[in-house]
């Protein structure tokens, strides 16, 4: 079936894509700049059409625990929030990772710390890719840089979540969430009636009872489980790295940027190419797993890299680890909800890398 | 072709919806479009602005600081965005409530007194469509029939009876826009 | 010492006086001797068995002594984060409305850290059963003060007795949820005598029926003893419970359907 062309905000695209992906349940709580997701779903009222449950919870904490409950039934469930709300969800996310449950969590990032500002930021990188809550775990982190990808990553997110029994985070930001662009939407999928074998759906005589927990009081057992998780993350690192390259073949300098910063950096590349400077852009699409290998390869070809992110320098640490000292790596980004401009990126590449 | 536009004014003047109509019209013309609003408390009564980019190519940054065209609907926005028009670019403003008029010499300046005209037409709600009419007169990047198509697509059926009035406003805008200064 | 063959002689079908329900697994309970949890588990398991609900049941265990309830009940169970069981159960029931969904929570879980989830699930009238074990103390972590600890009652974090001026008053969650329009049946029971066990079992059975009829939240508080936490023998603890707990947490129905 053909895809449907719409003009939508990123937040609306997530909501519509969720309905079309056959999502079973969405549990959320209002917070700027992502409230359109819950508003759109309430207005669309998919309970009447697909049977999707949409519930406004009493808190972000309740919402993520509703996700836990739904995910443990083997259902396709999701939540969304923005930075302060995502912080509140961290305990629940750790439990979900520890119980190996699939789900989708959307973070439309705003500036922090604390209540911060409601404008776009990328300062939740560490929280998203390094764990976030307690314990040794990872989320699969997808970073959309367009409204189209906010729609597409709903389905991709669920696919990866169920494939690895692991929570997936879509790490967006206020700019992509609030921006309208063209989006091609997939046709409506039916909600699945199958349950994974591990799901708690009521114990029939034909199988032992299923229980979902992240607890093992025996430290040796817990170590075995942790090693199993680590093996899963190793497999994810091996198989699921996604990135996009823009004019990298002959690049002498490389920008590394995701999400909104990648869009800004692409424009910077165009400006610099206009000046005759050979610059390329590597855009990680998965932040976990990070495109470490590819960045290492490119470090052998370029003279230096600039990590562009709306944070004080978070992803740059992963770029530094990937480059492993081969070439200079610097960071540039505006803070507090200010979106970096292409001109600033141009200037900073020149001063920090080309001239530096 | 790429046209980078900022529209700025008071919340409630239809700034965001004018941008939306532009974006819809761009979609009708098979263009790539982006619509990036300022958001937050500003939306409720303060100043509002939106960046609209219409392009025949994939749009890179949806957030930019320099524009081909600035459409300015109040004094604060004029003060804030006059300097962000690219040299040789276009500034369109409504003279209503303006005490300090644009001063740059390196841009082309147009005036469209849409507030006054909307009052005269007895339909203050079509104010932003008069402005839009002015814009397409000086920057014919989108066609009037595509604006109408865009309206039909974006408006719920129950508001389709308002489309002829909006069309009238667009045409009126094309008529009344005047060049104040050539770059 | 009785030989194995001797036991087989005794265990003859015609000698059977009582049989543990199959819904209780053969795992050894982790509860202290004399604790009320085991009895509460058993009657819940019996109702599930008698109502033939095994294939329909999804339970939610808390953080607390009953965290590993999944080891003891042969039904599908999710272990929730501390206090969040009502939110977890909300989603389960909304997504699988045909199932029998219950939470089983202690006082710290339900009345302290999970206050918001408890009240809001009840206020939405989620069609679930909440079983609330109130022993006035944090048992699992070693006898700290709970939201339900009585005034003057000693615990490891109120070593001189609960001073309500500085430590706050005991919270009667059951009374609170009874005032919410979303709850359908709210009762306070105990399991320390055979008569009380029968009453509590009856209450659970009622809640099962109400859930089938989509009536809203059913909330059963079971005032229970904690011999270890209270530092008493099981017999002493039951006596103390009757004399001290029951006057503050009187047994009986707080909200019954108008029929």
Q: Can you offer a commentary on this structure?
A:
- The complex is a heterotrimer of chains A (356), B (183) and C (259).
- In chain A, 41% of the residues lie in helices and 21% in strands.
- Chain A has 12 helices and 16 strands.
- Chain A has helices at residues 10-20, 35-44, 60-72, 83-98, 125-129, 147-164, 174-178, 219-239, 259-274, 292-299, 315-323, 342-354; strands spanning 4-9, 25-28, 53-56, 77-81, 103-111, 117-120, 140-142, 167-173, 180-185, 211-212, 243-246, 253-256, 279-284, 286-288, 304-308, 329-332.
- Chain A is globular and about 70 Å long.
- With 183 residues, chain B is an alpha/beta fold.
- Chain B has a 7-stranded mixed sheet, with helices on both faces.
- The longest helix of chain B has 14 residues, at 15-28.
- Chain C contains 10 helices and 9 strands.
- Chain C has a 7-stranded mixed sheet, with helices on both faces.
- The model of chain C has no long low-confidence stretch (mean pLDDT 95).
- Classes of the chains: A alpha/beta (356), B alpha/beta (183), C alpha/beta (259).
- Chain A binds chain C through residues 24-25, 27, 53, 55, 57-59, 61-63, 65-70, 72-73, 75, 77, 91-92, 95, 99, 200-205, 209-215, and chain C through 54-58, 60-61, 67-68, 70, 73-81, 84, 87-92, 94-96, 99-100, 116-117, 120.
- Strand 10 of chain A pairs parallel with strand 2 of chain C, so a sheet runs across the interface.
């Amino acid at each position: 079936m053909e895809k449907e062309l719409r003009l939508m905000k990123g937040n609306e695209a997530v909501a519509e894509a969720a309905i079309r992906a056959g999502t079973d349940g969405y549990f959320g709580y209002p917070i700027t700049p992502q409230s359109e997701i819950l508003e759109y779903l309430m207005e669309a009222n998919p309970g009447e059409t697909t049977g999707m449950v949409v519930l406004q919870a009493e808190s972000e904490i309740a919402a993520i625990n509703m996700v836990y409950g739904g995910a443990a039934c083997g259902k396709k469930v999701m939540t969304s929030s923005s930075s302060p709300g995502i912080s509140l969800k961290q305990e629940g996310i750790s439990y979900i990772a520890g119980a190996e449950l699939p789900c989708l969590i959307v973070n439309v990032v705003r500036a922090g710390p604390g209540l911060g500002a409601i404008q776009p930021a990328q300062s939740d990188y560490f929280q998203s890719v390094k764990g976030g809550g307690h314990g040794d775990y990872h989320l699969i982190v997808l970073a959309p840089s367009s409204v189209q990808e906010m729609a597409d990553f709903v389905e991709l997110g669920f696919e990866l979540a169920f494939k690895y029994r692991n929570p997936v985070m879509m790490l967006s930001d206020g700019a992509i969430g609030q921006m309208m662009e063209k989006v091609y939407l997939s046709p409506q999928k039916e909600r699945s009636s199958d349950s994974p074998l591990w799901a708690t759906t009521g114990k029939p005589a034909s199988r032992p009872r299923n229980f979902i927990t992240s607890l093992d009081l025996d430290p040796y057992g817990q170590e075995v489980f942790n090693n199993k998780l680590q093996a899963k993350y190793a497999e994810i690192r091996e198989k699921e790295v996604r990135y996009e390259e823009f004019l990298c073949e002959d690049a002498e300098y490389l920008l590394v940027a995701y999400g909104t910063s990648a869009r800004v950096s692409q424009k910077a590349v165009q400006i610099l190419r206009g000046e005759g400077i050979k610059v390329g852009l590597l855009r990680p699409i998965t932040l976990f797993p990070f495109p470490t290998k590819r960045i290492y390869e490119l470090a052998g070809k370029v003279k230096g890299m600039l990590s562009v992110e709306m944070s004080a320098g978070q992803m740059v640490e992963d770029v530094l680890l990937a480059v492993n000292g081969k070439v200079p790596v610097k960071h540039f980004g505006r803070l507090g909800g200010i979106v970096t401009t292409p001109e600033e990126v141009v200037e900073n590449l020149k001063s920090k890398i080309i001239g530096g | 072709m790429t046209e980078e536009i900022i529209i700025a004014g008071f919340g409630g003047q239809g700034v965001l919806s004018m941008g939306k109509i532009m974006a819809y019209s761009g979609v009708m013309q098979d263009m790539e479009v982006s619509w990036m609003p300022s958001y937050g408390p500003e939306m409720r009564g303060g100043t509002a602005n939106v960046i609209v980019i219409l392009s025949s190519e994939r749009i890179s940054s949806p957030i930019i600081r320099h524009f081909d065209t600035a459409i300015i609907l109040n004094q604060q926005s004029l003060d804030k965005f006059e300097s962000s028009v690219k040299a040789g670019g276009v500034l369109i403003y409504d003279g209503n409530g303006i005490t300090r008029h644009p001063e740059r010499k390196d841009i082309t300046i147009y005036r469209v007194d849409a507030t006054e005209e909307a009052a005269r037409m007895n339909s203050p709600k079509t104010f932003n469509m008069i402005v839009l009419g002015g814009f397409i007169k000086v920057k014919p990047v989108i066609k009037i029939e595509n604006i109408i198509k865009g309206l039909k697509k974006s408006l719920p059926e129950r508001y389709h009876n308002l489309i002829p009035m909006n069309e009238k406003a667009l045409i009126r805008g094309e008529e009344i826009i005047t060049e104040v200064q050539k770059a | 010492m009785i030989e194995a063959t001797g036991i087989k002689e005794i265990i003859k079908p015609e000698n059977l006086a009582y049989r543990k329900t199959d819904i209780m697994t053969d795992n050894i309970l982790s509860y202290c001797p004399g604790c009320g949890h085991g009895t509460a588990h058993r009657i819940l398991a019996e109702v599930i068995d008698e109502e033939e609900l095994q294939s329909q049941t999804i339970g939610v265990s808390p953080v607390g002594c009953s965290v590993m309830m999944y080891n003891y009940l042969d039904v599908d169970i999710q272990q929730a984060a501390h206090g969040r069981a009502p939110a977890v159960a909300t989603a389960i029931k909304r997504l699988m409305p045909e199932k029998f969904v219950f939470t089983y929570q202690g006082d710290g879980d339900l009345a302290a850290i999970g206050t918001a989830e408890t009240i809001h699930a009840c206020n939405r009238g989620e069609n679930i059963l909440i079983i609330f074990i109130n022993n006035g103390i944090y048992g699992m972590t070693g006898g700290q003060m709970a939201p339900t600890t009585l005034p003057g009652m000693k615990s490891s974090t109120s070593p001189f007795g609960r001073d309500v001026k500085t430590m706050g008053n005991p919270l009667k969650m059951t009374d609170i949820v009874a005032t919410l329009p979303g709850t359908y049946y709210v009762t306070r029971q105990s399991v320390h005598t055979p008569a009380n066990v029968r009453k509590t079992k009856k209450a659970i059975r009622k809640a099962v029926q109400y859930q089938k009829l989509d009536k809203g939240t059913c909330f059963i508080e079971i005032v229970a003893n904690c011999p270890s936490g209270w530092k008493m023998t099981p017999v002493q603890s039951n006596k103390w419970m009757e004399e001290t707990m029951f006057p503050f947490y009187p047994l009986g129905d707080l909200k019954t359907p108008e029929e």
